[in-house]
Amino acid sequence: QVQLVESGGGLVQAGGSLRLSCAASRSTASMNQMGWFRQVPGKEREFVSGITLNGGSTAYADSVKGRFTNSRDNAKNTVYLQMNSLKPEDTAVYLCAADPALRVVPSRVPGQYRYWGQGTQVTVSS
């Protein structure tokens, strides 16, 4: 079992930046893929970004490509999501996810991640 705890969310003005962190309760080295998703009330969980073991492969939703950067530090059992040039439509609860399955590229499908954090709220004001 792996517990994931997100932090770093908050309120920011449009154009600003936030850095989210996701700390795992045990080594992330066994979690081949780790992902970030976001969700707003009444909508389905949306893929934001994923990263494979050693950061060899990353994937981004088109809506965040060029603005968000996903990275992981296995020594610290932590993954990060650097979010720049934030827009009001980025407002959501951001959730971290992890899964041990070996993949060449990280999955964009929520059902293919076994472990989930509780989420952290990001609010971008216009």
Description:
The protein is an all-beta fold. It is globular. It has strands spanning 4-7, 10-13, 18-24, 33-39, 46-52, 58-60, 68-73, 78-83, 92-99, 115-116, 120-125. 34% of the residues are buried. 0% of the residues lie in helices and 48% in strands. A hairpin with a 6-residue loop joins strand 4 (33-39) and strand 5 (46-52). Strands 2, 4, 5, 6, 9, 10 and 11 form a seven-stranded mixed beta sheet that branches. The protein has a four-stranded antiparallel beta sheet with strand order 1-3-8-7, with no helix packed on it. The chain has no helices and eleven strands.
Biggest sheet architecture: 7 strands, mixed
Secondary structure: helix percent: under 10%
Estimated share of beta-strand residues: over 45%
Helix-and-strand structural type: mainly beta
What's the shape? globular
Give, in order, the helices and strands.
EEEEEEEEEEE
Mean pLDDT, all residues? 94
Task: Give the number of helices.
Answer: 0
What is the β-strand count?
11
